[in-house]
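Board notes (copied after class):
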Amino acid sequence: MNTAFTYKPLEDSQEAKKLAIILGQCFAGFQEDQWEKYYENIGFNNFRILCQDETVIGGLRIYYMGQYFGGKSIPMAGIAAVGISPEYRGKKAATTLMKAVLKELYEDDIPLSTLYPAIQKLYRGVGYDQGGVHCQWEVPLTHLSVNNRVLPIEKIEDPQPNDFEELYQQQAQQNNGYLDRSLSIWKSILNADKGTIYAYLIGEEDNRQGYLIYEQVVINYEVYLKVKDWVALNHLAIERLWTFIADHRSQVSKCQWKGPFYDHKMLLLPEQSGHIISHDIWFTRIINAVKALEMRPYPNQMETELQFSLEDTLITDNSSNFKLQISKGKGNVIRGGNAEIKLNIQSLASLYTGFSTAKQLYYCGKLEASELNLDILQQVFALPMPSLPDFF
């Protein structure tokens, strides 16, 4: 670490106020007067700051949670609000901050980290790379010609995370890349951005099959129904969702929601008129390669061994030759072996999540392997395109 900088946890209200001022300058819409509520929601101990001498010059926040890959929740640290005061930029302060938090997470035995990069070069430089997609969709309500009211729908007057968590988990574990959410993520969902939060459960009380959490906002003189979160566990629940949203069309013009490149809920619309209005690519970092590879599930029918060399310029314990033994859907990692496959920690991130295949990485010069090993890698790491509806 640059000796001119000191990395440490946020310790008192004075440091918190200074960080709030920096984040307010770095991120449009971040209000300094909302700082107290902000750190209460995230947790005061989940912030880290960078100082030069006694001056707070930047910081970030950490979400301790999990992320589903192949149906299994892998412990993950989400990084957000990485900000450096403008007068200290150009001195590698952000790089120093990120290197310090990654070393801390490695010491805490956390295998993965995910973030939404403002500048990709910065995060690639410390070992992150493309992990999955986050898209915002929009559809006019006049195009929602669905009319299925078989399932009852019940309004929740004071929605709390435990009203929805079990249903969410059932859906999340079936979707590659979804979060195993922390409480702070749930709080952000149930906190209104611009209007009032409305929440509904779908199905009988003893057999819930989905839910909808949304708010209505005015954009360019039009009223939009903005979905904060939704779950539908079967086709009847999906049709009930679309019917309920369509019932708003006398006053609401469009529905917006966040999801993958293609949302299967649209399969039940007569017209495929929804379209993506924006998209982001989130980044993943393999922090502990051995633990990450052993926790990830693999195809049950495969019995194989892969020998590879991994390069990680920051976390030296990851730089080694390894043997990955696959049996009955589980992986076992042993240090040593031959470098039959060569890749760096960035390429492993994209391969691990399922965002890139081994052959795609090979053709881009980011992985070296024989044709046989490429075929095996394709099968071992095959997963659906990873996506995240949550933005943090």
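Comment from the instructor: The chain is about 25% helix and 35% strand. The radius of gyration is 22 Å.
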